[in-house]
Amino acid sequence: MTRVLLTGFEPFAGSDVNPSWQAVSLVAAAPPPGTEITAVQLACVFGTAREQLAAAVEEADPDLVLCVGQAGGRPGVTVERVAINVDDARIPDNAGRRPIDEPVIEGGPAAYFASLPVKACVAAVREAGIPAAVSQTAGTFVCNHVFYGLAHLIATERPALRGGFVHLPYAPEQVVDRAEPALPAEMSADALRVIIGAAVRTRTDLRIAEGATH
């Protein structure tokens, strides 16, 4: 059995739901074969979310960590390639905090790459009929904060652990009054199951073009 820690976020920015937690909850209720899932909801709060993640890793002792967040406006599931060492909040978090140009980890490296086979994960999701892409930026809000925190934890304390971050589009109920892309929670959950499977069985990533021109 592969022990997998899945994290999603509580709602933020005035929304009643967060598709990341919706999808994570569905995966936890029906895990992929051969996996043991621990699901944890993180606060959408700088500092607190990273502390909650570290505590969850300590308790679950996973082989694989997949953190999941919301990226409203994106048309498909995006697997993040890189986390950067900066908090720069366009909006306040759920505790009213709004750091600007602050490091996630004082003295940490500028960036970390995900330790997941991001291109293989994206290819597998597409093969399952779900829109997906490699993302070159996790933003500078709490999602990137958690992603960088996870990568730093792996680099400094748990070198055998593998982990990364996935962004999901809005849930349909979040866009009923506006024309923006959305995915049903069940489809997002299916994508996460596929990503977990690809990450478990793939150690060497695909060498295919998934870059961006801007």
From TrEMBL:
Removes 5-oxoproline from various penultimate amino acid residues except L-proline. Homotetramer. Keywords: Cytoplasm, Hydrolase, Protease, Thiol protease. PANTHER family: PROTEASE FAMILY C15 PYROGLUTAMYL-PEPTIDASE I-RELATED (PTHR23402), PYROGLUTAMYL-PEPTIDASE I (PTHR23402:SF1). One of its GO terms (molecular function) is pyroglutamyl-peptidase activity. The keyword Secreted does not apply. InterPro entries: Peptidase_C15 (IPR000816), Peptidase_C15-like (IPR016125), PGP-I_bact-type (IPR029762), PGPEP1_Cys_AS (IPR033694), PGPEP1_Glu_AS (IPR033693). PROSITE patterns: PYRASE_CYS, PYRASE_GLU. Its main location: cytoplasm. It is found in: Cytoplasm. Its EC number is 3.4.19.3. It catalyses: Release of an N-terminal pyroglutamyl group from a polypeptide, the second amino acid generally not being Pro. The active site is at E80, C143, H167. Belongs to the peptidase C15 family. This is Pyrrolidone-carboxylate peptidase. It comes from Streptomyces niphimycinicus.
